[in-house]
Write a structure and sequence with these properties.
Layout lengths: L1 H15 L1 H4 L6 H18 L3 E6 L5 H15 L5 E8 L10 E2 L13 E9 L3 H13 L4 E10 H5 L14 E6 L3 E4 L2 E4 L4 E6 L6 E9 L2 E5 L6 E8 L7 E3 L3 E7 L4 E6 L15 E5 L4 E4 L4 E6 L4 E9 L8 E4 L12
Amino acid sequence: MAQRRSYLRGMEENILDKQLTGKKYIDDSRVTELVEAFSLQVRNSNPDVILFINDPGAPGGMELRRRMAPIMKARGMAIRAETLRVEGQSGSRNHNRGVTSSLDEIDLSEARRILILDAIAFSGNTLRLAREAIRSRCPNAIVELGVLVLAQPLLEKQGSVGDTEPARIDFHQTVTDRQEVFFPWGVTQTTAVCEQRFEGATPGSEHCISIAKRPWGTIEVLAEQEVVSVRQLTIEAGRKLSFQRHLCRDEMFVALDDNVGLDICAEELEAGTTEYDERVKSLVLEKGDYVLVPRGMWHRTKAAMDRVRLLEVAFGLYDQDHDIERRWDDYERQQRNGSI
């Protein structure tokens, strides 16, 4: 039991991390803060030349260059900066993507350490293509990669990456678990298949969401060849579900609106405990957030000022008559089944 409780506490920490990694908006003040710190990392890497990614469909690389320029100048960083154009064809960022810059126009003859920068990396595909192009041109140079924001799935792959795999990122400033992020200059989305993996009820078990791009948009596979039950919940403004837990199913919540409240607790709550107990943790989900609550963890979703919707994907046996234990409920249903 103690081992199980410890595992649930670790899962609770992972869920609470959503407040940092699940942000879909990075506002101007946050970008300024990140770029300031990122510029220090760039200076410490001591490159001969910096190549900023120029993607016509996602101007993050060029915005990064614009914002870093005055910082580099103020700190006396006399580093030559160039641009490297990487784009797709047929009006789609992910269709036949490649480096379209003429590398002959960039003088790299004296460069021994080259740094390629972009605002964000989801799959690492863009930076991998850029690195391969530069290595073919400068086989003896050290080519490093840096991004302001790094996707969590790519970070998890960094331990074993070869030349045919997504690019190894040498440094980054912050992490996101989103497949798209809104910056002050616009939204940037992944251009390749990426996966989000969530630990399940027991160590070693997991549920995977696969996010794949198409020329027309995005496919998100929430479950495939699994025993699942899917429901859409609508919570009216000011209402909340009971504080509950399950023995036979993990529940993945997908926020369909902003400001979905979620309370969780990995501890064993004694009878008579109030809902204001300090062991109960709260967070707010933004539209598009995924959170997996494993079986055995207390939880409830709620709405504040506006009605909200969320998708509930239950993995395992869905027994609404017996597989629900309620601790607190505004509608006095503690001893009743989940169909009420």
